[in-house]
Each structure stands twice: as C-alpha cells, then as structure tokens.
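lol forgot to send this yesterday, sorry. struct tokens for the thing we talked abt
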C-alpha cells in the first residue's frame, strides 16, 4: 500500500477539484477523486494523468449516498477529506433554493456522517467569500459578520456552522474552512481549465469566449459604482494558487489538531475594466464591450485581507492578474470548446454508479 496520505477529493473532476488534484499529487498526496460528472467531464481524467504522469483514481457517484462514501473512505483508507462537491450558481440558487440546500447541505451531512463512521476526522471545506454578503468595508477579514444574500451563500454558511458544531461536539474533529474569493485562470499547461456549460455566468470565462470569437461582446454590469473606474472590483485569484491553498490546509490538519477558517484571496482588487484590459494585453485581441445596468445582487467592491491564511497556513497567492489572464487565454485557445469533443471514456461498471478505479486501468 502506498505511504502517501490518501485524501478523498469530492468534486475532484471539476474546475477547482482538477487543479487541486494536480497540486496534491505534486505535493506527495494520493487523492481519491469523487465526482458525479453533473458539472464536469470524465475527459479531465486523462488530462490529469498526462499532467502528473500518474494513474488518477476516480470514483463516480453522488456524495449524498452516505453508505457509498463510507465504503470509499474505508476501501481507500483516507486520512482526510477535501469537500468541494456542490452547486455554485448564485442565480440558479435564487430560483431553485431547495436544490441548493439539498445538494450542498445534504452532501456535507452525508460526507461527515461517513467520516464519523470510519474515524476519519480531518476535513477541508470549500466555502465562499459570498458568505460575507455586502461588506461594510474592504478589505474583508474573517472577523467580519456573515450576511449571505442568496440561498447558495446561505447554504455555504450553514455548512460552515455544521462543521463548527461538530468540531465543538467532538474534540478530535479538525476542520479547515476556506473562503474563496474569485478563482480564475487555468493550469499553465493549458491542459485543464474552466469549462462552463452554456453561457458563462462569470467574468473571466465570458471575456475569454469573446476574445476567441464565440461571443460578440462583453456586457459590463454597471459603470456607476463608487470605484475608481465605476465598474465592480473583485479579488481574482489564480486557480493554481487556490489549489495550493487546499494542499496547505490539508497538510496543517493532518499535522496539528484544531480548526480554522481563512480567506483565500490575493488581497488586491481589480475592476471589470481592469480585467478586460489585462486580458487584451495577454491575448493580443481586442475585447468589445458595452455598459449595461448593474446586475441584481452585485456589490461594488470585494477583496480579501489574506493575512490570516499567511499566518495559519503559510500560504500566499503568488500570481497576479496578468498571469491569470495569460493562463485563461492559453486554456481557451487550446480548448475553444472546453472538454467537449473529447472521446468519452468508457466507464467501467454499470448502472448509476461505476468505479473508475485507476483511470489507466479503465481505458
Ligand atoms: N461581470 C460583468 N459581466 C459579466 C459577468 C460579470 O460585468 O458578464 C462583473 C460583475 O458584475 C462583477 C465582476 O464582473 O462586478 C465579477 O463577476 P463574477 O460573476 O465573475 O463573480 P462574482 O464576484 O459575482 O461571484 C463570484 C462567484 C460566486 C462567489 C463569489 C465570491 O460567481 O460563486 O465570486 O466572491 F460566491
């Protein structure tokens, strides 16, 4: 049996999960990916094997199936879980709140119960800066009050509170909550990246699709915010830096008792026009845009005080907006249709769930 610590990585085939899988493998961990492929493609697995030069273990199924998760934790002897699986579209959560509570809260309950049953006590949880709502000021630190404004954001806060209650009730639990700001970009190889289905909700993939010619122009939501150029300011974070944040978090949990909640951001804000101009420089293409009214629910400015993550985890983001745009563009150029078009890999097994096992074995 491998001596590398095994880590269950739910949502492992998704945008953040796939980059986290690479970072874990490079840091000497053995991730066991879990995904239902509801918002990801099995094609990513082959890319992960090419990137890391190692077989990638992936199990297909729904984390709400507690006995199944329990079986995985036992079979792979996982020492920790990184729980990323969840729904993340803010607008959809407003329209279909129960879907979000059921999947995001129900999924975490299932994973925690499975962990409890097998004595796995360390969990890193993917939360979001959106739990802060509209902040009283910036930068935002972890002592700010939480005031979620969407069912998605509220589902993340409920998950955080459940984790805190469990850590309080059972002193051997170790919980690392990561509040992400705005993850963007892609692996510098251009092999893995963000593959939003349909019209992208988020700024960077939308800009990338305009630059590559798939969409006509960007709509900039509001130019009358109280910000230097009137457009919304966010803390964009390179996804590979975010992935390293997960590695630092799981390392800390496995080495030290105790729990923590930290922001993961760069600490710097960039406006919508700032991102657009940086993308134009990175791509050498012009990105047409028009100003349209503000998007409901958006706030003017949002960026992190990232100093707690530096002191607790020794983690700091190292990439700026230029590198984020360069790598997003590289991915977009190499994969104008995302993972679509890749030959679907034949999944071993049958029915709702199948075990992919070592992906090398499955092809
Ligand atoms: N924007 C546009 N046009 C677009 C898309 C976005 O002008 O087509 C603007 C937005 O108004 C905002 C900025 O670009 O000012 C960033 O918008 P995103 O949708 O990329 O990101 P958000 O900050 O709205 O939200 C993201 C995630 C949430 C997460 C939050 C945490 O979508 O899931 O960051 O801060 F909770």
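and heres what i got for the seq, position by position
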């Amino acid at each position: 049996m491998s001596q590398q610590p095994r880590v269950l990585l739910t949502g492992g085939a998704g945008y953040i999960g796939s980059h986290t899988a690479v970072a874990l493998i490079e840091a000497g961990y053995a991730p066991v990916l879990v995904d239902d492929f509801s918002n990801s493609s099995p094609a990513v697995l082959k890319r992960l094997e090419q990137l890391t030069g190692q077989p990638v273990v992936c199990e297909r199924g729904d984390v709400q199936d507690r006995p199944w998760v329990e079986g995985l934790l036992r079979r792979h002897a996982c020492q920790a879980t990184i729980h990323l699986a969840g729904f993340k579209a803010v607008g959809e959560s407003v329209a279909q709140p129960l879907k979000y509570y059921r999947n995001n809260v129900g999924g975490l309950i299932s994973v925690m119960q499975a962990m409890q049953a097998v004595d796995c006590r360390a969990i890193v949880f993917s939360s979001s800066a959106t739990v802060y709502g509209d902040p009283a000021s910036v930068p935002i630190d972890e002592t700010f009050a939480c005031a979620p404004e969407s069912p998605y954001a509220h589902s993340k806060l409920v998950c955080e509170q459940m984790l805190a209650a469990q850590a309080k009730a059972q002193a051997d639990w170790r919980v690392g909550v990561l509040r992400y700001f705005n993850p963007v970009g892609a692996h510098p190889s251009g092999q893995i990246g963000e593959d939003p289905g349909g019209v992208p909700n988020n700024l960077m993939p939308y800009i990338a699709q305009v630059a590559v010619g798939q969409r006509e122009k960007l709509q900039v939501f509001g130019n009358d915010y109280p910000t230097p150029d009137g457009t919304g300011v966010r803390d964009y974070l390179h996804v590979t830096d975010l992935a390293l944040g997960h590695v630092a978090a799981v390392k800390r949990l496995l080495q030290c008792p105790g729990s923590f909640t930290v922001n993961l951001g760069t600490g710097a804000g960039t406006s919508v026009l700032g991102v657009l101009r940086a993308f134009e420089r990175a791509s050498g293409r012009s990105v047409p845009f028009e100003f349209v009214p503000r998007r409901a629910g958006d706030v003017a400015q949002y960026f992190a005080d990232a100093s707690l993550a530096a002191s607790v985890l020794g983690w700091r983001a190292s990439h700026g907006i230029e590198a984020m745009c360069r790598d997003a563009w590289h991915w977009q150029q190499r994969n104008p249709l995302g993972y679509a078009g890749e030959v679907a890999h034949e999944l071993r097994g049958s029915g709702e769930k199948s075990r992919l096992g070592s992906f090398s074995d499955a092809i």
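The two ends are 23 Å apart (CA to CA). anyway ping me if u want another try
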